[in-house]
Automatic annotation (TrEMBL), chains A, B:
Belongs to the SIMIBI class G3E GTPase family. ArgK/MeaB subfamily. This is Methylmalonyl Co-A mutase-associated GTPase MeaB. Coiled coil: none annotated. It comes from the Bacteria.
Length: 326, 326
C-alpha cells in the first residue's frame, strides 16, 4: 500500500516521481484511488487549465512546447497532459514528435505526462480530468492539455478546459476541414500556426469570417482573438499567452470561470458514475451473459434493446427495468 | 403513433421516406424505439458494412461517392451513413462537400443519411449501430459508414464495420499523422487517395513499412492491401471494391465475419445498457442533485468519486454502492 498523504506531500514539493506515481494510481483505478482523490480534492482549483486542439499536423506539440517555455520564463510551474492515441504502430513515430518536449524534461518546474486514448475503462472522458486533478493539486500554475486526435472525445476534453485554444495551419487543416472536425466553435483563442507559410493570412481571414468576428456582439461578450504564430521559432507565443491571460481575466470578471468549473465537475462526476455502472455491466461478461446475448442479437434472434434490458437488470435488479423508450 | 410494421414493409420496398422515418424514430429514442428494434431484428444481417475513416482532407466523401457508383453499377442497393460533426458553423460548409453525393440523390437504390456526432445522449457509439440496423433491415446490400472526425469515437465506429477502410493522401495525413490519430492499425484495406499527387508512392511505401507488410505472417492471416486511387476521377475504385470482396471472402472462410458481428453486437448491447443507466443519472439532474454535488466538487469540498457514489446510489438504490476502487 502506498502512503498517500506522504505521496501527496512529495508531489506538492514538485517531485516528479511522486506526481507520476499519483497519476498512475489514478489512471489505473487502483484500490487506493478513492483515498488519493479524497486527499487531492481540497488542494485543487489553483491551476489554470488550457486545452489545445487542432487537426493532426498543425503543430500542436511544437506550440505546446513554446507555451511551456513562455510560462517558464514567467516563473510558472507548468503541467502538460498530452492525450495521445496509443498504438503499436505509433510508439516510435510519436517519440520523434516529443523531442521538442525533451527540452523541458530536465526542468523541475515542468511536468509532462502522456495519456493513451484507448484501452481505458471509461476512456479519455474519465481519465483526463483525474490526471488534471493530480497536476492541479501538485501545484501546477498552468496545465496545458494537448489532444492529438480530432474527434468527439478529444473535442469534449478540450472544451472542458478553462480556456480552449484551437490551432490551424495554412493549407492543411484549413477552415472547412476544421469545421468538419467540429472544433471551430469551441475556441476561446484561435492560433494560425506555421504563419510563415503561404496562405496564412487567407486562413486567418477565412476563420474570422466563419467565426463571424466581423459581426456585432453584445457588450461584454468574449470575442475570440486570432493569433498568428511560428511556434517552431517561438514567434507569436507571447501574444498567445497574452490572449490567454485576457480570456482568463474576462472569465473572472464575468463569473465564467466558476461556471465552467462547475460544469466540468458535473461532467466529471457523471462520467465516474457511469463508469462505475459500466464496470458492473463488464462484470457480467464473466458469467458469459453478454456473450450469449450478443450471439443471439448478431443472429437476429433478439433485438439489442431487449438484450440490454437483461444486462441492466443484472446490474440494478429486475425491479428497475429501464425506461428507455417506454 | 406510427404503424411500425407498415413502415418497415415500406422501407423494405426501398421507399426512402420510410427509411428516413425509421432512422429518425431510432435516433430520437422515440417511445416506439423498442417496437421498431424488435421489428427490425429478424430482418438484419444481410448487409455488408464497410467503414471508411481517415484524417480530414484525404477525400473520404469523394471516395465514398465513387464506391457508391461502383456498387450501383454492380446492381447492389447501397446505404451511406455519413457521421458528421454537427456544428452551427459547418452546416453550410459541409453541403459543398456533399455535392458529389447529390449525384446519387435521385437513385432509388441509394440511401444517404448524415448523422451528427454530438448532442446525442449516448453519442455515436449508441446511434450509429441503430441507423446501420435500419439500413440493413431495409435491404441494403452494402452500407458505407463514413466518419469525418479522427478520434476515439470515430475510430471505434469504423473499427466495428465488417471491413474497415483507412484512407490516406500524400502530403497531408501522411504516415506519422495517421499513426498519431491512431487509425493505422484498424484497417483491413488501405487506400492512398489523390494518387496523382507528388509523394503518393512514398506515402504507400511508408505505410507498407509501418504496417510491416514486408514481414512474414502466419499462413491464412489477412495481409491488408494498399490501393492507390484518384477518387475524384473514379480511378482505382474497382480495385478497392475488389479488395473489399477479397476481405469479405477471407472473413467468410475463417469464421471472422461471424466473430466480428458477435463482437459488434456485444458492444451495441453494452452501449444501450450503459445509455439506459446514464439516462437515469441524467434524470437526477432534475432534482438538482448533480448540480449541487458538482458545485461542491468544483470548490474542492468533495471529491468526484464520493459525489459519483451519491449519483449511483440514486440510480440503483443505496444497497448497491459502487465497487470502484473499493
Amino acid at each position: 500500500m502506498v502512503d498517500v498523504p506522504e505521496l501527496v506531500a512529495q508531489a506538492r514539493e514538485g517531485r516528479p516521481r511522486a506526481v507520476a506515481r499519483l497519476i498512475s494510481l489514478v489512471e489505473g483505478a487502483s484500490p487506493q484511488l478513492r483515498e488519493v482523490m479524497a486527499a487531492l480534492a481540497p488542494l485543487t482549483g489553483g491551476a489554470y487549465v488550457v486545452g489545445l486542439t487542432g487537426s493532426p499536423g498543425v503543430g500542436k506539440s511544437t506550440s505546446t512546447s513554446a507555451l511551456v517555455s513562455a510560462y517558464r520564463r514567467a516563473g510558472r510551474r507548468v503541467g502538460v497532459l498530452a492525450v495521445d492515441p496509443s498504438s503499436p504502430f505509433s510508439g516510435g513515430a510519436l517519440l520523434g514528435d516529443r523531442v521538442r518536449m525533451a527540452d523541458h524534461a530536465s526542468d523541475p518546474g515542468v511536468y509532462i505526462r502522456s495519456m493513451a486514448t484507448r484501452g481505458h475503462l471509461g476512456g479519455l472522458a474519465w481519465a483526463a480530468p483525474q490526471a488534471i486533478r493530480v497536476l492541479d493539486a501538485a501545484g501546477c500554475d498552468v496545465i496545458l492539455v494537448e489532444t492529438v486526435g480530432v474527434g468527439q472525445s478529444e473535442v469534449e476534453i478540450a472544451s472542458q478546459a478553462d480556456t480552449s485554444v484551437v490551432l490551424l495551419a495554412p493549407g492543411m487543416g484549413d477552415g472547412i476541414q476544421a469545421a468538419k472536425a467540429g472544433i471551430l466553435e469551441i475556441g476561446d483563442v484561435y492560433v494560425v500556426n506555421k504563419a510563415d507559410r503561404d496562405g496564412a493570412d487567407a486562413t486567418a481571414r477565412e476563420l474570422g469570417h466563419m467565426l463571424g468576428l466581423g459581426e456585432a456582439r453584445a457588450p461584454g461578450d468574449w470575442r475570440p482573438p486570432i493569433v498568428k504564430t511560428v511556434a517552431a521559432r517561438g514567434e507569436g507565443t507571447d501574444e498567445v499567452v497574452e490572449a490567454l491571460e485576457k480570456h482568463r481575466a474576462w472569465m473572472d470578471e464575468h463569473g465564467e470561470l466558476t461556471a465552467r468549473r462547475a460544469r466540468r465537475a458535473a461532467r466529471e462526476v457523471e462520467t465516474i458514475a457511469v463508469t462505475a455502472l459500466r464496470e458492473r455491466i463488464a462484470d457480467l461478461r464473466g458469467d458469459v451473459r453478454l456473450e450469449a446475448l450478443a450471439a443471439r442479437v448478431a443472429a437476429g434472434a433478439l433485438d439489442p434493446y431487449a438484450a440490454a434490458d437483461d444486462l441492466v437488470a443484472g446490474v440494478t435488479g429486475p425491479e428497475q427495468a429501464p425506461r428507455h423508450g417506454a
